[in-house]
Specification:
The protein has 197 residues and is of the alpha+beta class. The chain is built from 4 helices and 10 strands. Helices cover 20% and strands 30% of the residues.
Length: 197
């Protein structure tokens, strides 16, 4: 009985003793690895911002750059039309850092204590958003804007609040949204209609 107790007490310690770093140089699923597998030009292409938000996110993550598998990093390019917004969203698996390359952006996030932090940034200035916090970027300049972001995850995930709340499949019941936002059902229906495909 005592030996079982000792094992139960030590088991959590054993699980924390693992090496969190990669135990191999790389892990590309295709066994015919070439030099091209380690290079990605997707972030060099200007994104199409002719959409309801006036922004476009081009991901450089493990889904389109397989060499990132197991490396724990990824990057995005975010293009903004004048007045464009990268709508409120969060990354459940990563902290985000970013550098404004061009333009003038309002960058903001909200803490779990409902404290809003924001600043207007220009080219060369950097920001950081802690993992999982709701945040956004808005182009407040007169021309286009561009930011390059980096993540400490090969696949940070994105929970884009307008889509999550008003365009999920199946949809969140209207009575839940009307109660949560303290609005009439016609307001919820109007918002949902903007995101229907």
């Amino acid at each position: 009985m005592l030996s079982y107790l000792v094992v139960l007490l030590l088991l959590p310690l054993i699980s924390f003793s693992a090496d969190p770093d990669s135990l191999q140089d790389f892990c590309v699923a295709d066994q015919k690895v070439t030099s091209d597998d380690f290079f990605f030009d997707g972030l060099s292409k200007v994104g199409d911002t002719s959409n309801i938000f006036g922004s476009n996110v081009t991901g450089g993550n493990v889904l389109n750059f397989p060499a990132l598998n197991t490396l724990g990093i990824s990057m995005n390019r975010v293009d903004f039309a004048p007045g464009g917004v990268n709508p409120p969203h969060s990354h459940p698996r990563a902290t985000e850092s970013g550098v404004v390359i061009e333009g003038k952006l309002l960058v903001g996030f909200v803490t779990t204590g409902n404290v809003y932090h924001s600043k207007v940034l220009t080219a060369g200035q950097m920001f950081v958003i802690p993992r999982g916090l709701v945040h956004f970027q808005k182009n407040v300049g007169v021309g286009k804007a561009l930011v390059i972001t980096a993540f400490n995850s090969q696949l940070p995930g994105a929970v884009v609040l307008p889509f999550t709340l008003f365009a999920s499949t199946p949809s969140i019941p209207d009575d839940v949204l009307t109660r949560a936002f303290q609005v009439e059902e016609k307001v919820v229906e109007s918002i949902k209609s903007k995101f229907s495909s």
